[in-house]
Design brief:
33 strands; 15% strand; 6-stranded parallel sheet; disordered C terminus; alpha/beta; globular; 937 residues; 31 helices; 7-stranded mixed sheet
């Protein structure tokens, strides 16, 4: 059977079973068959083959793109003749292929001997931005050899004509509103975790956005208002909280955006989204990637009394009143010049934050990628010509306050900034390009990152990146047919690209499903690093880490850079003493509760950096705090440690990197060995005193300061989705933090210890509790299922060596077996201990879930509706979050414990304790200590 026949059968199946269009073509072999049928003018499939070739072939560096570019070249040179594809049309098709093979072909034609063809090819090249080092080197070499076309290209690139000749964005944009949900809208609503397997199939994945009814309502609004764009709104909430998946904005663009190219199917751009409280930072980045618009509506405000005081309800929460309506079907106008939102002639709100000079450039260029690559190409051309780079793009926003010290994040940004003009240290609000040191790609967004890399014609990792890792943790629980189809292909692509991969495409080393954040935390060996990871919980306790969409991850991998503003910081310090029966997880939750109390319900963490002065807590344990900052809606977090603790943390990281090397995971470039060398250099700098542990200056300026009183934390603290709150907008936030006594005798249906929020100490706590229960009762009986998923294989190995795994295995009714991994997700649970494979497990919600309607107590991070547990018609599922000892005890009892029961259960157990540092963890301000790096290409 031919590949084309198989493709036609797949088309019929997709149409009949899923109502889908033909899947876009990325295979060179299939496209070669299609081209053969195009050449055969009497072939019965010729018409369809032409359509597939023109309209349904993926661009970039896919193998199909290489075949397509070569055939178009042959048509242009007259070596092949296709009546329907003239030379002019062939050039047009090449112009939409975005780089890679198409650029190679265009350069061959532009620098060739046929003057007429060279002129046409040069005209197309002047519109392109996805050129890489080899392409630029070829142009430079031709220019130095006296080639006139090469000189013409460089002059055009230097003037950034690929950008300046694009049309400006419309002055007025009409939108019709669609309330996508009330309260915070997570990306899980836009792109559910349980549909992660289909994200790379954009049309198929688009079917899962919100509901089918919502999709149809959007379609009907478009029909009714053909001249307006549908704007999806989070009413009384923030749009796009939680996970960082690009598929969320891809789905919104698919339903409410516009097609990026008529010759590339299901890649849409320029959506408009909004929220009463704006757009979550990570989601806003994905909006920028697509050249979209994200509005902060401020359409609900705090109600005040006659004295100007905020009116509160019975729960002490601020009462909101509507400033203006955005009910579904309301037609509004965005004035992009005035940067205001109107209803008719009535001004509603200033939306200037959505139309900064940089964001307007993204909109004009069709997305942030084109601007990033365009700037790099312009700089190269100007330098090659020996001229100053013309000021075309909005200059980087460089803010410097004389005499003002630097926060920790400001120091990191200054250390890694590239392309800035100022010689003075930069402060918050500056918008700069920065070097990215560590990059992480996770396995449910990785297929999209691969697509993005192919689309931007990248073929190898940037040499600027110190280390990059492709995980397998989000699909670790169940090795089903979907995982088997997607993951090996992903690992092969990323391994070839230059990443360290959890799975070996050659099958030599054992597959490692360790939680990605734990691996990234280990391979980050410098506390002054910038880390980009394809997951919202990329929050390292060394360096500053930003959870990012798959596209931003791709940019970081391909260029070694990222562009972003320096955020404001909120300083978090601690006072008092931690009670012995409390776990550090309780401190983490209490921080959220005390912050909200201190600031009258306002979340000062949202969109900012949390600078937590952790002092003597090792990186593994401190990660519990930095990880949770994603739920605090912070943009990122920085952990301030003292010198001795930082050295210990780096030494531990070194030992774990060495284990990876011993397993055979290092690549030809010896990336892992390079990280060990960097670690040794960092340790030497700390010990010598020349480069001490990162700390802010004593006169740094913060947006706010939060002091956490440990004396107030006397009970285990629970993060509650508050599923029955009368105000729908207040459900499923992470702001409801309650003491365990609130849940006195509340039944528990399932417990989960796992995810990135736990470390080796948590596993040892479980073992200790089991020994205590065994000693007290002679045997152990679980009255609710307990699912335990260690974060890493290293932890499992260490527990085995230290004897703790034995007690876990003894009482496990199920223990993972890598030789026989599960091939189907569990749907029913027994009242036993499940020892699961290292990985995300229940926290991810894409494979394993609790039974619908369950009340789950977990150590994980997510309490979104339907994520860990779905609802039933009779009962809403609850994902309550707490500490490891609380989870274990609740499953033994089948209910939440009393304080007396809890204290007795943890007696004598070494919980994750924390002692605040007494001295201020700052350095003396020195205006010359950090100077931004000059232009780096």
């Amino acid at each position: 059977m031919s590949l084309y026949t198989e493709y036609m059968e797949e088309i019929q199946t997709r149409k009949a079973e899923l109502g889908l269009s033909p899947k876009p073509i990325d295979s060179a072999d299939l496209l070669s068959e299609i081209i053969a049928q195009i050449k055969d003018t009497k072939n019965e499939h010729r018409k369809d083959s032409l359509n597939f070739f023109i309209y349904n072939t993926l661009p970039g560096t896919t193998s199909a793109a290489g075949v397509k570019a070569q055939f178009l070249k042959e048509i242009i040179l007259g070596q092949e003749s296709v009546a329907e594809i003239t030379a002019e049309f062939a050039f047009e098709l090449l112009s939409h292929m975005k780089g890679g093979p198409s650029i190679e072909v265009l350069l061959e034609l532009a620098l060739g001997n046929d003057a007429a063809v060279a002129t046409q090819a040069a005209d197309v090249l002047k519109t392109q931005v996805f050129l890489y080092d080899a392409d630029m080197a070829r142009i430079k070499s031709a220019y130095e050899a006296g080639n006139a076309v090469a000189k013409e290209l460089l002059e055009s690139f230097a003037q950034a004509e690929f950008f300046t000749k694009l049309p400006e964005i419309a002055e007025k944009i009409d939108v019709v509103t669609y309330i996508a949900g009330e309260g915070d809208i997570s990306t899980d609503l836009l792109s559910p975790g349980n549909q992660a397997h289909s994200r790379a199939d954009r049309e198929l994945h688009g079917k899962c956005m919100i509901t089918e009814e919502a999709q149809q309502e959007i379609v009907e609004l478009q029909k009714k208002h053909p001249n307006a764009k549908v704007m999806l709104i989070a009413e009384k909430g923030t749009m796009g909280v939680g996970s960082s998946r690009m598929s969320g904005v891809n789905n919104v663009a698919l339903w409410a955006g516009k097609q990026a190219s008529p010759y590339v199917p299901f890649i849409n751009i320029a959506p408009v989204v909004a929220g009463t409280n704006g757009i979550a930072p990570i989601f806003l980045t994905t909006v920028d990637v697509t050249g979209g618009i994200g509005l902060d509506l401020k359409n609900w405000v705090k109600k005040t009394d006659e004295n100007g005081n905020t009116v509160t309800d019975a729960n002490g929460d601020a009462v909101l009143e509507e400033a203006y309506s955005v009910a579904t079907g309301t037609v509004l106008t965005i004035n992009t010049k005035e940067k205001k939102l109107y209803n008719g002639d009535k001004e509603l709100v200033d939306v200037s934050s959505a139309f900064t000079p940089q964001k307007v450039e993204f909109m004009k260029a069709g997305g942030s990628y084109a601007v990033v690559f365009g700037k790099k190409l312009q700089t190269f051309a100007a330098e090659t010509l020996g001229i100053a780079t013309p000021l075309v793009y909005a200059p980087s926003k460089e803010i410097s306050h004389a005499g003002q010290g630097l926060t920790a994040v400001e120091k990191i940004f200054n250390r890694n900034a590239v392309g800035v003009l100022s010689d003075s240290p930069l402060h918050a609000g500056s918008n700069v390009r920065v070097k990215v040191n560590i990059v992480g790609s996770q396995d449910t967004t990785g297929p999209m990152t691969s697509q993005e890399l192919e689309a931007m014609a990248a073929s190898t990792i940037s040499p600027l990146v110190d280390g990059a890792y492709q995980s397998g943790c989000h699909t670790a629980s169940v090795w089903d047919s979907k995982a088997q189809a997607n993951i090996p292909k992903l690992m092969a692509f990323m391994n070839k690209f230059g990443l360290i991969t959890a799975r070996d495409p050659e099958g030599i080393y054992h597959s490692m499903t360790d939680v990605i954040h734990k691996v990234l935390n280990d391979i980050t060996v410098d506390d002054r690093s910038i880390i980009i990871g394809g997951d919202s919980h990329t929050r390292m306790s060394k360096g500053v880490a930003f959870g990012a969409d798959s596209g931003t991850v791709a940019i970081a991998l391909a260029t070694g850079e990222s562009a972003m503003p320096i955020p404001d910081s909120v300083k978090v310090t601690f006072k008092g003493a931690m009670a012995k029966h409390m776990d550090f997880r309780d401190v983490v939750h209490a921080t959220q509760a005390q912050m909200l109390k201190q600031f009258g319900g306002e979340n000062v963490f949202q969109g900012r950096i949390i600078e937590v002065h952790i002092g003597t807590l090792m990186a593994d344990q401190a990660f519990t705090f930095t990880d949770w900052t994603a739920e605090m809606k912070a943009k990122a977090s920085i952990c301030i440690s003292n010198d001795e603790t930082l050295i210990k943390s780096i030494e531990l990281a070194k030992s774990r990197i060495q284990i990876m090397i011993n397993k055979g995971m290092d690549n030809k470039a010896q990336t892992l060995q390079g990280l060990i060398d960097l670690a040794d250099k960092r340790i030497a700098g700390i010990k010598s005193g020349e480069e001490p542990a990162l700390a802010p200056d004593d006169n740094a300026k913060y947006f706010a300061e939060v002091v956490v009183d440990l004396n107030e934390i006397v009970e285990p603290m629970i993060a509650d989705p508050d599923v029955n709150n009368d105000d729908v907008s207040k459900r499923y936030t992470h702001d409801v933090i309650r003491p365990v006594s609130f849940y006195n005798d509340k039944p528990v249906d399932l417990g989960f210890v796992g995810s990135c929020m736990v470390h080796k100490g948590d596993m040892k706590i479980i073992a200790h509790m089991l020994r205590n229960l065994e000693k007290k009762n002679g045997s152990i009986e679980f009255k609710a299922p307990l699912v335990v998923a260690p974060p890493t294989y290293n932890i499992v190995d260490e527990l085995k060596a230290e004897g703790d795994w034995d007690i876990l295995s003894k009482y496990a009714g199920f223990e993972f077996d890598d030789a026989k991994p599960k091939t189907a997700a569990r749907t029913k649970y027994e009242n036993i201990l499940y020892l699961e494979r290292p990985g995300c497990n229940l926290c991810m919600g894409n494979q394993e879930k609790a039974e619908p309607g369950d009340t789950v107590i977990a150590t994980s991070t997510r309490l979104f509706q339907g994520r860990v547990v779905a609802d039933t018609t009779e009962k809403k599922g609850e994902s309550l979050l707490g500490s490891t000892p609380l989870v274990v005890l609740s499953t033994v009892l089948g209910r939440f414990p009393s304080m007396d029961e809890y204290k007795a259960a943890v007696e004598g157990i070494d919980l994750t304790a924390f002692t605040p540092v007494e001295e201020a963890m700052t350095t003396k301000f020195n205006a010359g200590q950090v100077v931004p790096v000059k232009v780096v290409n």
